[in-house]
Amino acid sequence: MVRREKCPSCGALCEYDDRSVWEGNREREEFKCPECGYVLDVVFTDQLPHVRVIEKGTKKQNKESVGNE
Ligand SMILES: [Zn+2]
Fold first, then answer.
1. b/e map of 28-46 (b: 16 or more CB within 10 Å)?
2. Is this model's pTM higher than 0.85 or not?
3. If you measure from the C-alpha of residue 23 to the centroid of ligand 1, how many angstroms do you get, rounded to a whole number?
4. Separation of CA 12 and ligand 1 centre (Å)
5. Tens of pLDDT, residue by residue, the chain (69 residues)
């Protein structure tokens, strides 16, 4: 099933498929936001976690302004 999730960290709209093709051989896979690396979901699946960004987030990551006054 294809799910759409909005990343709570950066606001990007992400789409991923959490269905499993094969029975057995499943592992817990982390579906991470490609924009910021936030773990959107942990799914028990045999697929490789592939997350697609549909819409880029509007929230900015203030990586460079840390310590700025
Ligand atoms: Zn994100």
1. ebebbbbbeebebeebebe
2. no
3. 31
4. 5
5. 899 999 999 999 999 988 876 677 788 989 999 999 999 999 888 878 889 999 999 876 566 555 555
